[in-house]
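Aim 2 progress update. The chain analyzed this quarter is reproduced below.
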Amino acid sequence: RSAPTFASAAAIGVEDTLTPTPTAKTLSSADTIVTTSVGKVKVKFADVGLAGLNISSTMNGVRLVDPTGVEVAVSKTHNGPTPGDQITMDLIFDIANDGKRDGIYGVYAVAVDNAGNTTTLTDSFVIDSVAPVVIGDYFYLNTRGGGTTIPEGMIFGATSQIDTIVVLVSDSSSQVSTDIGFKFNGGVNLTASSISVTNLTTGQSVSGVLSRAGDSLLVFWLTDSTPLAGNILVQVITLDRAGNQRIQKRSFQYDDQAP
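Predicted structure tokens:
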């Protein structure tokens, strides 16, 4: 006696239908993360027995559940009668890649063969479509993530010293508490994230050492706390574990020349 199961490989695939040129991704046990929008979820089955999969009955028992446990509204079709092994769930409301609905999605199925054997199957995948962000858009000066900040276009004079530039990073997919993605945090890849400083007036990089602390703190230690005069650009590149990347910039002036 045998019953149907998920296909051993390429059981779940997703399609991004919101872009001009739709893309598709086949998930695996080693890669369950989706970084694009999602419009369709495809589930493939296999039946090792002789009876064969009853694709119509199986389709009735397939569900997609969002991170809050609510069933996602879909329209279902299958590829029967031949080969009759795949069910497509077309989402009524596509999931955009804006982070609002990021999180872990569950795929549930009751697979049925033509002999009446059944198997309850479960799987899941993660939608993580948004890169980490500098918290509050605050670039801190000479502190460890608090106190004085550097507003865009700020002017520093000869009496000012710049020892460190610091940012705190968060990977919450949404900053709105009512969004599903607000509670989802895919994790900052702090090792791959960085701060660089450039003097746009001289065209040279400002030398310094980058350090990291915990899972959210980036610190750039300037080699010289009184850099050469000019327009200074700070660039922060943040990445998460899904590979999403964001670049944020802040510019200020350092003027040590008397009038």
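The chain has a mean pLDDT of 93. DSSP finds one helix and 20 strands in the chain. These observations will guide the mutagenesis experiments scheduled for the next reporting period.
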